[in-house]
Amino acid sequence: MALFHVRMDVNIPRDLDPDERAETIAREKAYSQDLQRQGKWVHLWRIAGQYSNISIFDVADPDELNDLLWGLPLFPYMDIVVTPLAKHGSSIK
Amino acid sequence: MALFHVRMDVNIPRDLDPDERAETIAREKAYSQDLQRQGKWVHLWRIAGQYSNISIFDVADPDELNDLLWGLPLFPYMDIVVTPLAKHGSSIK
Amino acid sequence: MALFHVRMDVNIPRDLDPDERAETIAREKAYSQDLQRQGKWVHLWRIAGQYSNISIFDVADPDELNDLLWGLPLFPYMDIVVTPLAKHGSSIK
Amino acid sequence: MALFHVRMDVNIPRDLDPDERAETIAREKAYSQDLQRQGKWVHLWRIAGQYSNISIFDVADPDELNDLLWGLPLFPYMDIVVTPLAKHGSSIK
Amino acid sequence: MALFHVRMDVNIPRDLDPDERAETIAREKAYSQDLQRQGKWVHLWRIAGQYSNISIFDVADPDELNDLLWGLPLFPYMDIVVTPLAKHGSSIK
Amino acid sequence: MALFHVRMDVNIPRDLDPDERAETIAREKAYSQDLQRQGKWVHLWRIAGQYSNISIFDVADPDELNDLLWGLPLFPYMDIVVTPLAKHGSSIK
Amino acid sequence: MALFHVRMDVNIPRDLDPDERAETIAREKAYSQDLQRQGKWVHLWRIAGQYSNISIFDVADPDELNDLLWGLPLFPYMDIVVTPLAKHGSSIK
Amino acid sequence: MALFHVRMDVNIPRDLDPDERAETIAREKAYSQDLQRQGKWVHLWRIAGQYSNISIFDVADPDELNDLLWGLPLFPYMDIVVTPLAKHGSSIK
Amino acid sequence: MALFHVRMDVNIPRDLDPDERAETIAREKAYSQDLQRQGKWVHLWRIAGQYSNISIFDVADPDELNDLLWGLPLFPYMDIVVTPLAKHGSSIK
Amino acid sequence: MALFHVRMDVNIPRDLDPDERAETIAREKAYSQDLQRQGKWVHLWRIAGQYSNISIFDVADPDELNDLLWGLPLFPYMDIVVTPLAKHGSSIK
């Protein structure tokens, strides 16, 4: 398995239809929680004061990560930066 | 408790005495593992291909975080950026 | 308690309804002054020549800070950067 | 009086004589505390995890500020950025 | 008195009503020339090839500067950066 | 397998012993060519006019990539940025 | 022949007519695959998590490259950065 | 005479009327060629893969350059950066 | 005549011989004041809190400016950025 | 033939032996003038106020350009950025 650090900055357009907005955010939450339960989206934190999150994904490879991220309901409104992670020699895990 | 995302970029000077270098790195590892065992340094990952890590700290407040980071044996050779984290509404934890 | 330095850059869309604009700015002012009276928003300065402020918050933790900032009536129109602060060894306070 | 937001990033060269280093840091502390007592250096915070501070100065004008900053014993080892501040219309002070 | 270096980058929206545009630019010119005559806006240069200017203001303090800049008719369409200036020891003025 | 785009900027210190320099560069070449023959370092190009390369690695995961990059004889003198790649829907390969 | 590294970041406007959008993307794919079959667009990778690609072109010169890139159906919606590549002395190809 | 290096990045709004767009581009071409024939716009190159050019102007002074650039029919849709050039001691011209 | 805005950031190496340092700074002052008296270096301000200045030069062309700047005794220790200025239509001078 | 825009920023170390410094600069000049006479280094300008130049090369391909740039006697002390150029549709040449 491969670990990736992912930062997502969300910028939903003001003129998005309110129902579509609410529905997209609800789908995003369900999608995220499903991946969390599968053990693929292993951490999800809010950056304090920003509509942004920092996440850790544990997936087979960059292809799977790319598929998961493109599947995000909010993907069209996100700026995403991916950083690959390796095990650290001082980690006790 | 308060969560912080910490990125550390390490740049040890070439002319550091080799024994001091080795001893400092060994102390850094012990220091880090002690904080991990105390549950204060909750995650520690290597950024692939860089002498850098991404860490998550769970501490009382920025004062405690600041004390812990200044105590790092490699602190004089690090660039550190701290980002405060909040619980995310979609996290299942 | 935990101190945070917060910079807010405001960019209200030109096409926002003027009444909504005025009402949002009024609510922002009331919201800010309420937090100031509670001792959570301890300093608030204008950056000269910019629709931006620099603020100091004194809150329990990043979670509370995040809740307060998301509650700002102008939050959707702001870029916010948070920097955690610690006590300085030379401060006489 | 005029308010200025000042960020100072300190970078003391490794090869500075240890006695000179210690003596300079001690003078810096005394200098800073003297200005704090005079009410000119009104706030001084450490940026968590960095050898940096954020300060607020209350001085007559940029000339006085410039003189005070050039007088810092650590001035030769600092990067300094000054931002002028104005009273904010929502501040209750 | 206090000197400030001010850079203003102007970006008037394309869809601004042409009459409002012309009237705003005319008011900007009158406002600027009035401040020049008062000796507060002491220099005003165009950056060659850009809808930008570099200006020097001589005002009482950052509060007055902030009031003057917010009063610019084009203020809503400008990005402004202020740099405080001090007398230079080699200046013959 | 996982693909990664790697940019390496090389900056060998001027005061490195010439023999050590030559020997390190020779080992770097052998190390690189060995990985190329193993099919792990699948592309290697020079950025025109810079002591930099752009490379494509095909490895098991970020851990293997990290091990390979830390093993580069010139690693201490390189700035490295890794970008994970996925298959593109329009690629005919 | 001349090699160029090309990064393309795609940003299709939200208000583009859906049919035009779909048709443009289809033409982009055909155009790309035609150039791949001609051996001019020799590599095409997706940057994981972004609507971006990294490509390698093998063309006669910058003029031909410029013509090919301006011919991309998505060109009006792309930010493109071109880096010229040279053969690397350690490459075994 | 004075030489200036000018980079122009063009970004024509999508919603510009097609006739106005075509007419503006045609006027830009005529304007540019007229200045080229006068010997004031001495070089004009396309940056490969971008709607940008790099140009060299030979004019009396920054005032004339500024007038010529503001006169560009595409000026409202351009970002322009000007760099003044001097004769190089190794140039054989 | 041609106006140029020049920013100079000074960074004198710590290990410069103290006598050479003092002598260079003294020559810099004399050189600057001579150009000021000639009317070529028309303004010289200190950026508050930095070893930097902002200057306005009034010279024949970029060649003369380049010669004057290369002649600065502190030139080897300066980062210099030049911005050409034009007369502003709202200036009353 | 292929055109490339090349910016070179020179930073010769202070501690380079003065004779080696002078000899390297002399070789650089000869090397440059030889390439100019061959028609490969077609333009060479000084950026006013900086130890930098902007050059235009006319070479067979990026490989030749890379060879020529690595052959510069000052290459070890330069930061170089290459931008490929294409013919511009409005150029009259």
UniProtKB/TrEMBL annotation, chains A, B, C, D, E, F, G, H, I, J:
It is an enzyme of class 5 (isomerase). Keywords: Aromatic hydrocarbons catabolism, Isomerase. Coiled coil: none annotated. SUPFAM superfamilies: Dimeric alpha+beta barrel (SSF54909). One of its GO terms (molecular function) is muconolactone delta-isomerase activity. Pfam families: MIase (PF02426). Pathway: Aromatic compound metabolism; beta-ketoadipate pathway; 5-oxo-4,5-dihydro-2-furylacetate from catechol: step 3/3. It catalyses: (S)-muconolactone = (4,5-dihydro-5-oxofuran-2-yl)-acetate. Residues 3-90 form the Muconolactone isomerase domain. InterPro entries: Dimeric_a/b-barrel (IPR011008), MLI_dom (IPR026029), Muconolactone_d_Isoase (IPR003464). Homodecamer. Belongs to the muconolactone Delta-isomerase family. This is Muconolactone Delta-isomerase.
